[in-house]
Amino acid sequence: MKKILLPTDFSENSWNAIKYALQLFKEDDCTFYLLNTYTPIVYHVEYIMVSPSQFGLADVVRESSEKGLNTLQKQIKKNYINPKHSFKNVSSFNTLILEIKELVEEQEIDYVVMGTKGATGAKEVLFGSNTVQAFKHVKCPVLAIPDNFEFETPHDILFPTDYEINYQDKQIKPIIEIAKQFTSRINVLHVSTGIDLLDEQEQNKAKLEAYFNKIAHLFHDISNQEVTEAITNFQQKARINLLIMINNKHSFFENLFFKSTVSQIGFHLNIPFLVIPSDKKNKIEI
C-alpha cells in the first residue's frame, strides 16, 4: 500500500498534479492524502494577542478549506473511479512545507506529488518557492508536475548524475519501481568536464549499472555544455517523459537549485520532475 500526499491550493496547477498522480499510480493500492493548509490572510496585533476564535476568522477559513477538500474528493471519485485508491482529507492551520514535513514523518508517506506553482505563480519562474522548499527539505521523493502537462506514460526517463553519489537502495528504489511498472528505458546522463572519471566515480557508475541490469538503460556522456543546458537539450531531442534527480549534498543538484535563484537558472522544463532525497530509508529487491 503506497501512501501519496497531494497538496492542493485548489488551483488548476494543483488539480493537474493530482490527475497525474492518479494515473501514474493507477495500478497500485494507494491511500491518497489530500492536503490543504490555511493561515489567516491578515495578521493584526490584536489577532496575535487575542484568541483568533474571538474574531471567527479561523473558523471561516477552516470551513472553506474543508469544503474545498470535500468537493475535490467528489471530483476525483467522479472522474477517476479506482477501487485500489482511497482518500483522506487533511485540512491544517499551518504553513504548507511544515505540514508536509510533519505528515511525511507521521504517516510514512512514500511520495509527495505537487504542482510546480500555485494559483498566483508567475510564468517567468520555473518552480514556486513551495516546490523548491519541498525539494530541499522533504524527506521523501517529491514529484513536481508542470502547468498543463497531460499524463504521458514514462517510457523514457532521464536521470542526470555526476557519479559522485554512492548509490543506495533508498535512492534507486523509486526509479526502478517506475521503470518496471511502465517498462521504461532509463537514460543516464553525465555531463563531462573533459577530465576522466575518478576511481570512485567509476565504482559508482558500475554500481548504478548493476542496479539497472534488468531494466532497459543507456549511458550518455555529453561534453562542452552546462548541466542545465545538457538536460534541456536532451529532453527536447529525445522524447523524455520524466526527469529524475537525486538531491545529494555537494552534488550538482545542490548547485543547480540552491546556490542560484530559481528564476535565473535558465532551465526550461516542461516534463514532470521527480526529486529523490538522499536520506530516506527504503529497501529494494532487484
UniProtKB/TrEMBL annotation:
UspA domain span: 1-146
TM regions (residue ranges): none
PANTHER family for the chain: SENSOR PROTEIN KDPD-RELATED (PTHR46268:SF22), STRESS RESPONSE PROTEIN NHAX (PTHR46268)
Similarity comment: family membership: Belongs to the universal stress protein A family.
Protein name: Universal stress protein
Organism (species): Formosa maritima
